[in-house]
Write a structure and sequence with these properties.
InterPro entries: ARF_GAP_AGD11/12/13 (IPR044518), ARFGAP/RecO (IPR037278), ArfGAP_dom (IPR001164), ArfGAP_dom_sf (IPR038508), C2_dom (IPR000008), C2_domain_sf (IPR035892). The protein is α+β, with helices and mostly antiparallel strands and 365 residues long. It folds into two domains: 117 residues, Arf GTPase activating protein (Annexin V, domain 1, Orthogonal Bundle), CATH 1.10.220; 156 residues, Immunoglobulin-like (Sandwich), CATH 2.60.40.150. It has nine helices and 15 strands. Strands 9-6-15-14-13-12 form a six-stranded antiparallel beta sheet.
C-alpha cells in the first residue's frame, strides 16, 4: 500500500482514522523513536512510540507481553487501541520517560546501525528499563544525557567500564533493571537462564514479515466436560503471539491476523492449540509445523520478477506423510500479494483441523 502526501508534504497512510493520522504529523512522531529513521510505519502499542520496520523486528522479538507491535498500514486499529496509543503522547513524551537517565556518553542507534546495536539499546531502554527515573528516592544509575560533558560519546555496544560499574554499584532495591524484573516475579536464577537466549533473539537479521490469519478450527478435541475454550499460539524462532480465547466451541472461528518477523535462517512456523483453564494449567489440544520456506522463496522470486497478472500460482507446499497438511498448500499471487492457504491436521491429539492463511510481506512495507 503506497503512502500519499497532503498539501504540507506529510506522508499520509490510506485507511487510517483521521485522529491517528493527525497524531502522526506531530513533532517527534515523524522519525523512529529508537533510531531516528524517517517516516516510521510501525508502533509499539505498549510504549506509545512510532518505530521503523527494523526496530519493530527487535520489539517483536521481546514478546507481546513486553512490546505489542502494530503496523499503521497492515493492521486494523480498534478505537481502544487508538485511544491507548494517543493517550501516551507520542515519541517525545515516551522518550522523556524511557530515556530520562540515559548516559551522556551513549549514542542512540542510527538508521544505518546494525541489528546488534539496535537490539542492545532497545532491550536496555524498554525490557530492562535502565534509563528510567523511577522517582526522587531512586538515583539515576548513569549521568543523564541532557547533562552532557565535553568528553564525547560512545555508541551502543562500546559502553565504558565506568558506566557498567556505576550501574552495578546501585543497591539492589535501587537498580532499575532489578526493579523491573522483580515486578514480573522472576527469580534471579530464572532471569539469568533466559537472558542469553533473549539477547540472541534480538540480534537475528530479518528478511521480511509474515502475516498469519488464523481462520478457524474444525472438530477440535474436548478438554472440558463436553467442549473446550481454545486459543492458538504461533511461534517463529524466539517470537510468539497468540489469538484470543473462544469460549465453549469445538469449531471456533477466529479470523484473527497476527504478525511475525521472518529470520534470515527461516525456521518452521510452530502452531499450538490450548484450552484455556481458569484455575489450572491450560490443556494441550494439538500442534503442527508449517514450512514457510516455499512461501518466502516465492515472495523473493516475485519481487525480482516482472509478473503483473492479478492472480497466478507461484508454487506449493506438497502434502505428504512427513508433514501435517490435509491438502497441498498452494502459493498464489493475488493483487500483488503473495499468499498461501493451509489446512493443518493437528498432531499428538485425538482430532482437529486448523485452517490458516499466510501472507509474506517484504521489509519495504
Amino acid at each position: 500500500m503506497a503512502t500519499q502526501q497532503d498539501n504540507c508534504g506529510h506522508n499520509n497512510v490510506p485507511g487510517l482514522p483521521e485522529r491517528l493520522e493527525g497524531f502522526l504529523h506531530q513533532s517527534g512522531n515523524k522519525t523512529c523513536a529508537d533510531c531516528g529513521s524517517p517516516d516510521p510505519k510501525w508502533v509499539s502499542l505498549s510504549f506509545g512510540v512510532l518505530i521503523c520496520i527494523k526496530c519493530s523486528g527487535v520489539h517483536r522479538s521481546l514478546g507481546v507481553h513486553i512490546s505489542k507491535v502494530l503496523s499503521l498500514k497492515l493492521d486494523e486499529w480498534t478505537d481502544e487501541q487508538i485511544d491507548s496509543f494517543v493517550k501516551i503522547g507520542g515519541n517525545i513524551e515516551a522518550n522523556k520517560k524511557y530515556e530520562a537517565c540515559m548516559p551522556a556518553n551513549l549514542k542512540k542507534p542510527k538508521p544505518d546501525s546494525s541489528i546488534d546495536e539496535r537490539s542492545e539499546f532497545i532491550r536496555r531502554k524498554y525490557e530492562q528499563q535502565q534509563f528510567m527515573n523511577f522517582g526522587d528516592q531512586m538515583s539515576c544509575p548513569f549521568q543523564p544525557s541532557h547533562v552532557r560533558s565535553s568528553s564525547g560519546s560512545t555508541s551502543i555496544g562500546t559502553n565504558t567500564t565506568q558506566d557498567k560499574k556505576q550501574y552495578e554499584k546501585q543497591p539492589t532495591k535501587h537498580r532499575i533493571g532489578n526493579a523491573f524484573r522483580n515486578s514480573w516475579g522472576r527469580k534471579d536464577s530464572e532471569h539469568k537462564g533466559t537472558k542469553k537466549g533473549s539477547s540472541l533473539a534480538g540480534m537475528v537479521e530479518f528478511v521480511g514479515l509474515i502475516m498469519v490469519n488464523v481462520v478457524k478450527g474444525t472438530n477440535l478435541a474436548v478438554r472440558d466436560m463436553m467442549t473446550s475454550d481454545p486459543y492458538v499460539i504461533l511461534a517463529l524462532g524466539h517470537q510468539s503471539v497468540k489469538t484470543r480465547v473462544i469460549k465453549n466451541n469445538l469449531n471456533p472461528v477466529w479470523n484473527e491476523s497476527l504478525m511475525l518477523s521472518i529470520p534470515e535462517q527461516v525456521p518452521p512456523l510452530k502452531v499450538l492449540v490450548y484450552d484455556k483453564d481458569t484455575f489450572s494449567t491450560d490443556d494441550f489440544m494439538g500442534e503442527a509445523e508449517i514450512d514457510i520456506q516455499p512461501l518466502v522463496t516465492a515472495a523473493k522470486a516475485y519481487e525480482k520478477s516482472s509478473i503483473n497478472e492479478s492472480k497466478q500460482q507461484l508454487g506449493k507446499w506438497v502434502a505428504s506423510k512427513e508433514n501435517t497438511l490435509v491438502q497441498d498448500g498452494i502459493i498464489y499471487l493475488v493483487d500483488g500479494k503473495v499468499r498461501q492457504e493451509i489446512s493443518l491436521r493437528l498432531q499428538n491429539v485425538e482430532r482437529g483441523v486448523l485452517e490458516i492463511e499466510l501472507e509474506c510481506v517484504p521489509l519495504t512495507q
